[in-house]
């Protein structure tokens, strides 16, 4: 199964295909992000969190190990500080941040290494906002496209990625509070939907590290068969932690 380098290898597809996070999520984070708030964005990717944080007036340090993605971040967000590093190794100043965020990235981290480092990098009273996205909302009846997606993934022989899934927030909260560095302030979920065409499905599904090129082609075929556009329902759980 591909590792975390998958995203850098598909940086252009990621940039084209990944939809932005829903406005309701940013509304929820708004009280934490004021002009000048110092934020570290761990696993920043193409900047789907970095961009809105900068737009809200935050001073953002984007931590991203992928060289292509780090270059893209530097070019797109010249006012951000971009560190080409992992969350486990980034040189973060002690007490240098008011807020840390990990947007659809925390499942790639070695939390035993990251949590104490982040505790040190955040000020007293600082906050860590962690969110992921479930691409496919289990609470919404299966659409014809989701039925085709289920058929594609049912044909896999490899076991699914180990560890808690996107919506296992209880398990994530337990992992994120392990070691006593953080406590849970709130757990919330945001349901949202997006209209995707054939090419965006091709790009988006290419970014999923557990999807093969053949499976991506089948998903794009499905969209084409269904008229060239599908409505997708996604869910983004947020775990807010206090330092
Ligand atoms: C699914 S992408 C999310 C990117 C972006 N935060 C977003 O919301 O679109 C996961 C990102 O985590 C990065 N990543 C993987 N392992 C990492 C690690 N150990 N430390 C920091 N970032 C990591 C990948 O390079 C990738 O950019």
Automatic annotation (TrEMBL):
Pfam family, any one: Methyltransf_11
Q: Which GO terms describe its biological process?
A: methylation
Where, if anywhere, are coiled coils annotated? none
Instruction: List, in alphabetical order, the Gene Ontology terms for molecular function in this entry.
Output: S-adenosylmethionine-dependent methyltransferase activity
Gene3D superfamilies, from UniProt?
Vaccinia Virus protein VP39
Instruction: Look up keyword Methyltransferase and say if it applies.
Output: yes
Methyltransferase type domain segment(s): 40-129
Query: The organism sits in which domain of life?
Result: Bacteria
Task: Give the record's keywords alphabetically.
Answer: Methyltransferase, Transferase
Is the Transferase keyword given for this protein? yes
**Into which family does the record put it?**
Belongs to the methyltransferase superfamily.
> What is the designated name of this protein?
Methyltransferase family protein
Q: Which organism is it from?
A: Kineococcus rhizosphaerae
Source species taxonomy? Bacteria, Bacillati, Actinomycetota, Actinomycetes, Kineosporiales
């Amino acid at each position: 199964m591909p590792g975390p380098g998958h995203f850098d290898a598909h940086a252009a597809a990621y940039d084209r295909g990944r939809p932005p996070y829903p406005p309701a999520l940013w509304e929820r984070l708004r009280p934490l992000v004021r002009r000048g708030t110092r934020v570290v964005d761990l696993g920043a990717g193409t900047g789907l969190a970095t961009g809105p944080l900068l737009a809200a007036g935050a001073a953002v340090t984007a931590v991203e190990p992928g060289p292509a993605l780090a270059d893209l971040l530097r070019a797109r967000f010249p006012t951000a500080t971009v560190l080409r590093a992992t969350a486990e190794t980034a040189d973060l100043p002690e007490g240098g941040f008011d807020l840390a965020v990990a947007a659809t990235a925390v499942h790639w981290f070695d939390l035993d290494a990251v949590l104490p480092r982040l505790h040190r990098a955040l000020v007293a009273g600082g906050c860590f906002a962690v969110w992921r996205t479930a691409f496919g909302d289990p609470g919404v009846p299966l659409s014809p496209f989701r039925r085709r997606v289920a058929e594609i993934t049912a044909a896999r022989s490899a076991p699914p990625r180990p560890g808690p899934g996107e919506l296992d927030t209880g398990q994530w909260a337990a992992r994120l509070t392990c070691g006593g560095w953080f406590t849970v302030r709130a757990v919330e979920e945001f349901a949202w939907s997006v209209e995707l065409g054939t090419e965006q499905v091709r790009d988006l599904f290419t970014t999923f590290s557990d999807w093969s090129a053949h499976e991506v082609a089948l998903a794009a075929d499905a969209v084409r068969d269904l008229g060239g556009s599908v409505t997708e329902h996604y869910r983004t759980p947020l775990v807010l932690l206090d330092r």
